[in-house]
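User: Some background: our group keeps a shared notebook of sequences we're curious about, and every so often someone picks one and asks for a predicted structure to add to the entry. Today it's my turn. The entry only has the sequence so far, pasted here. Could you supply the structure so I can complete it?
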Amino acid sequence: MSADRTSSWRRIGVMFDRDRRPEELAGFAKAVEACGADDLWVVEDLAWAGSIASAALALAATERVRVGIGIAPAPLRNPALLAMELAMLARVFPGRLIAGIGHGAPPWMAQVGAETPHKLALLEETIEAVRNLLHGRTTHVDGRVVRIDGVRLVHPPVEAPPVVAGVVRPRSLELSGRAADGTVVAEGHGPRAVTAALEHIGRGRAAATEPRPHELVVLTHLCVGDDATRVAAATAPIVEEYANWLQVPPGEVFLAAGSAGTAADRVRGLWDAGADTVVLRPVGDRPVEQVREVLAYLEDSGRNG
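Assistant: Of course. Here's the predicted structure to add to the notebook entry:
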């Protein structure tokens, strides 16, 4: 079951990598917008940078691109406060925000005393509460983890931003289909994994009480170069990291790597498998130039689905 297309246009996003200095974000966002990308995505990983502050900087520095949060960990974020922050951004920059929420990495959550034995309940209850608040509803939640008693935002956004779930495992993917406006699939997943994810998401959507469109966002590392040896050396640590995390052989870790044409073909493969938006995470030097080279190939062949 494929996700409903939010548009016939296949979107390209670019991630502001967490290792880049925060003071580079505004300039990077402007450069990404200028090169023709549709989205700029920021992250929230423990000890790097807060996603709300990052999104605010990126939105203020640009005029057109949509800014995605990928992702805010539910254990670290009170849903009422998160909805207040998102509503502020969505009111000032209408139609330009997409908000990702996820489980959070267990080791990081444990470091700050935020781990929970009820990961699925916490994520679903948080997503539902945040969505209701952003839609201007008076919200009551007496859940397994989340408690909200009659809260309604004074300044809800005119256009509620999509709330998407950054998840990996089958039960979490079903949860996303049931509760969220979309799903963020992490780096390393190729077309077959995207197709499998859509099956789980589809089961969740079939059980949803509120049918709605569902955007599939797929993250992938990008490494453009004509020297295969140098590309392999640059991506080797990434392949090792994601093979361990995803518990798959290194050869199954998906990247958009190689010549610009090859990388563009890899992006097309994700679109053809059902991705609505592909977010590129450039590796190595010249990140914006790498994106520009791939976009040139994609524009030549057309991006319309």
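Suggested note for the entry: The chain has a mean pLDDT of 95. The first strand starts at residue 11 and ends at 15.
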